[in-house]
Amino acid sequence: MLVLVFAVLLLVDVYFFQAVLAISKNWTPTWRQVVRVGFWVPTAASFAALLWWQLADPYAINANVRNWIITGVFATYFSKLIGIIFLLIDDIQRLVRWVAALFQKKAALPGTPITRSQFLTQAAVVASAVPFGAMVYGIVSGAHDYRVRKVTVKLPTLPHAFDGIRLAQLSDIHSGSFFNKTAVKGGVEMVLKEKPDLIFFTGDLVNNESAEVKEYISVFDKLRAPLGVFSVTGNHDYGDYKSWSSQAAKQQNFKDLMEAHRLLGFDLLMNEHRFITQGGSKLAIIGIENWGAGRFSKYGNLEQAYAGTNEAAVKLLLSHDPSHWDAQVMPTYKDIDVAFAGHTHGFQFGVEVGNFKWSPSQYAYKQWAGLYTEGKQHLYVNRGFGYLGYPGRVGMPPEITIMELKRA
C-alpha cells in the first residue's frame, strides 16, 4: 500500500516538475540549480516521514508528531494538485491542437502552439503557492489568533436576579495539539479580562490521552468565575481513537481525565445538573457526557441529567456535539432555554465576512458555528479554542464566547 502511495505522489511531483523546469530555464545556473534541487527536498522529507510512520511509532516522541506529518504531506501535495489543474489545461489545449493538425494542414485553433504556455505554467506555480502559503500562515498566525465573540440572548423566563448575567464558553481545547504555551496563556487572560459570571467548557480537553493536559493544568486552572466553572466531556476525551494495551488502561486514562478536570477547578457534569441560586431564583446548569449523532459515541444521558430541574426558571445545557440538539433536545425538552456545544471547530477553515459565513463544516453539520434559534430555544456552537490534525486555522480563528442573558 505504501509503495502505491509513493508511486502516486512521485507521479504528481514529476508532472509538476515540468513547470519548474520551464519557469527556471532562463535563470542563472546557480539559481536554476537551487530551485530544481530544492523542489525535491519536500518530496524527500514527505517520503521519509511516511516511511517512518509505517515502520515506527511517531507517538513515541510526541503525541502531536503525527499531526505535523499529516499537515506537511497534505500541504505539499494539495498545493501541487492545485497547480496541476493549470498544467492540465495547457496540455489539453496542446492535445487539441495536435489532433486538429492531423486533419488539416493548419491547426484549426488560432494562435501559435508552444511547448508549454508561459502563462499557464506561471499560473500553476502561483496557484500552488497560494494554498501552501495560506496553510503556513494558518499555523504561524491563525492557530492562536483568539477572538472574543459577544452575543446577547433574550429569555422571557429569565428571573430579574439573573438579568445581565455574563457567560463565557470555551470548547475543544485539544491540549495535546498546542505548540505555543505563551499564546495559550494569552487566550486564558483574554477570558479573564471579560470578567464572566460563569464559565462553561464544552468538551475535548485532549486529543487521545489524559497525559496531554498535564503541562497545561497550570494554565487553564487560572480560569475562575464568581458563580463557578462547569465542564462536560467530548468525544476525544474517552480515548476511543487510540489503541490501548488493555481495557483497564483505557478506563484508567478516563479516570485520569476526570481528575484533570478536578485539578483545573472545573465542576465536571457527568449526566447531572447543578443549581445556581440568586435572589431566591434558580438557574439550572445541565451537563451530559458526549452524545453525537451517527458514528460518534453516545455516552450522554439527558433524561438522567435533566431529572429534578423543574424548579429552575431557566435551564442551560452543556452538550459537546451540536447534532444532539436536533436529535434529542428539540423534540423532547422544550424548556431547555440555551444549549452550548462545540465539536465542529468550524472545520478550522472558512470565510466569515459580516453576516456571511461559509465552511466545509456546514456540509456535515446543520448547526456548526454561532447562534441558532428555533422558537424560544437557542443553541450556540463555539468554533473551538484549540485545533486538531492541522495545527492551525485559516479564516476560522479560535473562539472565546461571551454570552449575556437578558430578560425579554
Mean pLDDT: 90
Please state roughly what percent of the residues sit in beta strands, choosing from under 5%, 5-15%, 15-25%, 25-35%, 35-45% or over 45%: 15-25%
Distance between the termini: 61 Å
CATH superfamily of the largest domain: Metallo-dependent phosphatases
In one word, what is the shape? elongated
- How many distinct beta strands? 14
Number of spatially distinct domains: 2
Secondary structure class reads alpha/beta
The helix content is 25-40%
User: Any idea what the CATH architecture of the largest domain is?
Assistant: 4-Layer Sandwich
Mind describing the biggest β-sheet?
6 strands, mixed
Rg, please? 26 Å
What's the total helix number? 10
Q: What is the CATH top level name of the largest domain?
A: Alpha Beta
Going across the biggest sheet, name each strand in turn: 1-14-2-3-4-5
Q: What is the third-level CATH name, the topology of the largest domain?
A: Purple Acid Phosphatase, chain A, domain 2
Low-confidence stretches: none
Order of helices and strands: HHHHHEEHEHEHEEEHEHEEEEEE
